[in-house]
Amino acid sequence: MTSIVTQGTFRAALLDPRAATPAGLTGPAGATSPRRFAVYRNNVAASLTEALANGFPVVAKLVGERFFRAMAGVFLRAHPPASPMLTRWGEDFPHFLAGFGPAAPLPYLPDVARLELALRRAYHAADAPALDTARLGRLAPDALVTARLHFAPAAWTLASSHPVHAIWAANAQHGPKPGHGPQEVLVGRRGFHPVATLLPPGGAAVTRALMDGVPLGDAAEGADLAPLLAAWLQAGALTDLEA
Amino acid sequence: MLDATPRSLPHAPGVGYKAAHFNGLMDDPGPVGWIEVHAENYMGAGGRPLAQLRALSERLPLSVHGVGLSIGGEGRLDPEHLARLKHLIGWSRPASFSEHLAWATHLAHDGAPEYLNDLLPLPYTAATLARVCDHVDEVQEATGTRMLLENPSSYLLFAESTYPETEFLRQVVRRTGCGLLLDVNNVFVSATNLGFSPEGYIDAFPFDAVGELHLGGHDEDRDEDGAPLLIDSHGREVADPVWALYRHVLEKAGPRPTLIEWDNDVPDWPTLRAEAERAEALLAPVR
């Protein structure tokens, strides 16, 4: 009776390095060949590890190459890609990092991963023309209060209890050594370049309210508008306004 | 329904497109007459990848090459991925669309798809032939194009196989009307790994259906018995015996669009262009 190798059998042996090579797969001499089967095993693990490292370069740098490779091996088996769109793979990575014991000494890793996810989404986000800032300047003060702002598809915010922007900038852009304390971040895109900008404290909540369609006067009540506007413009986050 | 507009790649060398080569291709393409892109890299909503593809496709004929459709998969094709492919083919209007005789997606017990990011092998039996043909029909129907199906590189034999690969591919062509992409490096890799004659494989190949050739580099290893084990790595120059086999293909088939595939350890533009020039030197006399 000839051995039938189902794809389920193949897949199980592929992801478990200790599993035997499925019977029914042989070299030219008719013998089972773990070395040959290992070509597929290596391709899967190495290519997915590389895809994850490409998506999370700062996380990879923070933990080091050997740690990252071992961690990626655990992640790719627990959360394999659901589709060939590898540019979207890793949505579960921040949550995975938060529960991954060996990474516990770096409690800011999940937020760094969230920021890197947002930057990657921004890179592939739909194109949207930036707001002509002169239109903001022409608004009368009472029109500003009722205005609704439109944000680019790339725009995204995070309020972190860690200095996540400084940690990211120190590793991605040779920024200064990060200090302590919480930081809030806005991600957007200028032209084709994803941008991560520091928001003033409370700025993430204001920005999210505006994204939900709350008028500017309500969303930013009591907030200093100037640094918020500066951050939105710097990240190319605004596309339109309804006065 | 098949596309009625006759559009095809030129019988010239093409290159697998990498962003690092954008300026080289725009300013100094040399003999390069077309480009190929991996479909999955251009399925985002916007940004630089789509803008570059738009600019390049206005300059050079385009081949869209899918790596993730899992045509050899036991499960159904992913309808969302098929829709993304249809959209990409719709706006980029490639002269050719190709995919692999391989599988990559497995459905878990709960039905959740799991994408393994490799071109995994399938046995050649009546059952797998029927399945592959159904999937090719579905892809051609959904995208409105006649697709090309590529021969894989193999490391192992399935004891259950009942068809030689060339016969399997011939049957897929006969039943679905699809074309074939003949990867000459894959033939050499498989022949070395599985102990058959690469020229014999070429001589049995249904050339009438071949719309494109691939050339790429491979790595050399050994299995546990010391037998040669070549690995399809796309990370270096095309090997000399593969160039010799390519010459054999051109003598049999005449000129065909020929892609230089170099996906890993991507070289600078002059190095890649030199590989295209080497292909052009063999193509020109038979054109």
What does this structure look like?
The complex is a heterodimer of chains A (about 240) and B (about 290). In chain A, the strands form 2 sheets. In chain A, strands 3-4-5 form a 3-stranded antiparallel β-sheet, with helices on both faces. Chain A has a two-stranded antiparallel ribbon with strand order 2-6. The mean pLDDT of chain A is about 95. Chain A is α+β, with helices and mostly antiparallel strands and about 240 residues long. In chain A, about 50% of the residues lie in helices and about 15% in strands. With about 290 residues, chain B is of the alpha/beta class. Chain B has a single domain (about 15-285), classed as Divalent-metal-dependent TIM barrel enzymes (TIM Barrel, Alpha-Beta Barrel), CATH 3.20.20.150. Chain B has helices at about 20-25, 50-60, 80-90, 125-145, 165-175, 185-195, 200-205, 240-255, 270-285, and strands at about 15, 35-40, 60-65, 95-100, 105, 115-120, 150, 155-160, 180-185, 210-215, 220, 230, 260. In chain B, the strands form 3 sheets. In chain B, strands 1-2-3-4-7-9-10-13 form an 8-stranded parallel β-barrel. In chain B, strands 5-6 form a two-stranded antiparallel ribbon. Mean pLDDT of chain B is about 95; it is low at about 1-5. Classes of the chains: A alpha+beta (about 240), B alpha/beta (about 290). Chains A and B meet through helix 1, strand 1, helix 2 and helix 6 of A and helix 2, helix 3, strand 5, strand 6 and strand 8 of B. Strand 1 of chain A pairs antiparallel with strand 8 (about 155-160) of chain B.
